Amino acid sequence: MTSVAPGAQTSRLQIFVWTLFDFANTSYSVIVVAVGYSLYFKEVVAGGSGRGDLLWGIAVSISMLLTAAISPVLGAAADFSSRRKRFLFGFTIVSILCTALLYFVQPGMVLTGMALFILANIGFEGGTVFYDAFLPNLTTERSYGRVSGYGFAMGYLGSLTTLLVAMPLYAGGFGPDNLHNVRISFVVAAVIFLLFSTPIFLFFRDHKKTFEKRPSYVLAGFQRVRETIGHLRQYKNTARFLFAFFIYNDGILTIISFSSIFAMQTLKFTLQEVIYLFAVVQASGIAGSLLFGMVTDKIGPKKTIDINLVLWMGVVVASYFVTSKEMFFAIGIVAGSSLGAAQSASRSLMALLTPKEREAEFFGFYDGLCGKASAVVGTFLFGLISYITGNQRLSALSIGIFFLAGYWLLQGVDETTHHNSLRTEGGI
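The structure corresponding to this sequence follows.
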């Protein structure tokens, strides 16, 4: 029997605990953003039609814009104070509480429904900044892709598990007698989020660093972000990637936000069929994350992203021409495998390009300024086109331009220029 070094055991335990948070927070994303609440808000709270698309797009855009505004500053503050776990805890609790409070949103409560969702989404999206920033400390550069893939695979497993638990609650659709059950599903998501996010706060510790004490770490965060922006020309390669990510991630987040709405309104899926569709998408996401995680370590994250952006272009074109539910299930399998792969490879490339000791700050730009602000344009555009034309197929097709532009911009990124050489080039 081969013995395992204590350090290796600790590393494996830390990686497992880290991936459990992915399992936890995807219960929120699948029930609130992708399936349950997005449909409940459009069909019940906002009264359906293109108006519901527009209001949902506005809510998503506002939450992403606010997250984008605060994430880089808070990320820098977390780096400076060595308190990134505390920031993660604060954002997570906000998301869990507001998700549970969605239970009280009744038909016609548009402003309350939007406000609670915006707060919950800020908590969820803001927390990913600090969660992702732990990745460079968990493993070596050659394993970023694999470990990142493990996280996304665990996330899709969490989504699938949550869907299976919530499925009986959606059996009656949005009929008046079943709205109570639909609202209970939001509480279920909050409970799963709480239970499986707890281990990271119990077993993770912030890395001890010596920093000069400041009266305000948030103010220090502002100052540090200003310095980073002012010296961004010294991180040109990272800046190129962030811009490309900003564009193509807009398309990905828009599809996540509107895919269930598209299935139900354009293809006449029942609520139960939407649940089955997303169960299939999550299962393919698990396979895609694991497979492309290994592929990323073999061919590099940039080529992996290239492959998946081509697949995404095919997805939006196929969605424009789709004529049957069976065909949309097939599209969903491709989208699911590409979703986990593109996000995992993007996180790996960002970890590769991130300067040491500034992980949370740079992931604040990645997850916050670029990752969240990117969702402002696409979601608003989808909702606006749907509202004006009444044609969601045109809205879906318009998202293709984000993947095409992102692919073109990504070709200027050199993944061989990693953070060690960045520091020798004059990084701050």
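The chain has one domain: 13-203+214-424.
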